[in-house]
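User: Just a sanity check before I run the rest of the batch. Below are the structure tokens for the first item. I only need the designed sequence back.
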């Protein structure tokens, strides 16, 4: 019996040690990356040397983020563009079907799947159905950094913010200025792009466009006092397409 207890205790200690080591990797993944590039408050870590002109990506990100009332250039944002899918899966707890992830509940580190730094595009997963020109690397960085800003403002463990607002606002900032009527048309005509189950945030983006651009509400207020999904649907349904 004593020997069994020692074995169990030893196994538990090994598991705890491995858990702590993994946590340390998530908090400080820098040793897995050979290069880094700094632009103001954003540091991008890569497995390969960023090509000449790569700073234009971060300039585009800064322009996109400047539209956000949450933007705070005193906050240091760390983006890790993974050199391979294995490392991306390791840092995202196995979520290799994602384009990017902000670890907003832990470190606010941002992990991006393997990308073509020259073309400034992610290397998409097999089921990817979006046009690459509509989703450049700057979009993904701005989208995930917005999640970091949301987490910083609303709190790491704020469970009141619904998914549609969390993702819809990140999409609102990531895609840049868009035509509200275009998304209203997609909604009214039942476009598949309005189906979140297909991996599209267009429906959530429409909700945020309705609240911010149409009703002129403030994102800081919305994060702390999110309206019900039913009220949003009701409001959008009453709008007539011009």
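Assistant: Here's the designed sequence for the first item:
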């Amino acid at each position: 019996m004593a020997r069994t207890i020692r074995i169990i205790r030893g196994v538990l200690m090994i598991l705890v040690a491995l858990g702590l080591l993994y946590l340390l990797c998530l908090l400080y993944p820098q040793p897995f990356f050979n290069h880094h590039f700094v632009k103001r408050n954003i540091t991008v870590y890569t497995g390969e040397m960023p090509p000449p002109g790569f700073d234009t990506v971060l300039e585009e990100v800064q322009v996109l983020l400047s539209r956000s009332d949450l933007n705070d250039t005193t906050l240091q944002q760390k983006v890790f563009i993974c050199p391979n899918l294995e490392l991306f899966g390791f840092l995202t707890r196995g979520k290799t079907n994602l384009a990017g992830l902000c670890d907003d509940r832990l470190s606010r580190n941002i992990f991006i799947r393997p990308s073509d730094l020259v073309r400034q595009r992610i290397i998409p997963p097999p089921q990817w159905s979006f046009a690459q020109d509509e989703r450049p690397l700057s979009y993904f960085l701005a989208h995930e950094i917005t999640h970091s800003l949301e987490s910083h403002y609303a709190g790491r463990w704020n469970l009141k913010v619904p998914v549609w607002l969390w993702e819809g606002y990140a999409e609102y900032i990531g895609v840049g200025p868009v035509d509200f009527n275009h998304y209203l048309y997609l909604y009214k005509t039942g476009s598949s792009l309005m189906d979140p189950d297909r991996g599209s945030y267009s429906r959530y983006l429409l909700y945020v466009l309705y609240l911010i651009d149409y009703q002129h509400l403030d994102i800081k207020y919305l994060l702390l006092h999110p309206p019900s999904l039913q009220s949003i649907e009701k409001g959008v349904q009453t709008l007539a397409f011009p």
